[in-house]
Input
Amino acid sequence: MAGVGKYGSDGGEYRRAALYVVGVVGLAAIVFGLVNIWAASRSACEHAHTHLCDGAAESAIVIGPSAILLLGGIGAFVRTIQRLRAGKSWPTWQGAGWFLFILMTAYLAIGAGTAAR
Output
């Protein structure tokens, strides 16, 4: 489909981009859960009232899911460039990348605020 404009038919790319975003967010949630379980089961946190008892636990909970969201955003932007160079519809993938970057920034801001207490 050569000659598809910026806002032309996307041939199902919206669905692929949406599934990609859901997959990345789901993977970040799984990483959050695993890191949370790890932090809660550490011997350093045995007698603490919270599982965020030291810097290692706080850092892992903030950095783990953020790294997944960052890599997912970069992957979406790589897909954007591939589609742009092929002359196909690309704005959906760019939107997916920006959504993942904004979600990562919000997660970092909330996590850093919580860890700073």
The two ends are 55 Å apart (CA to CA). Helices lie at 13-40, 55-85, 91-115. DSSP finds three helices and no strands in the chain. The chain has a mean pLDDT of 86.
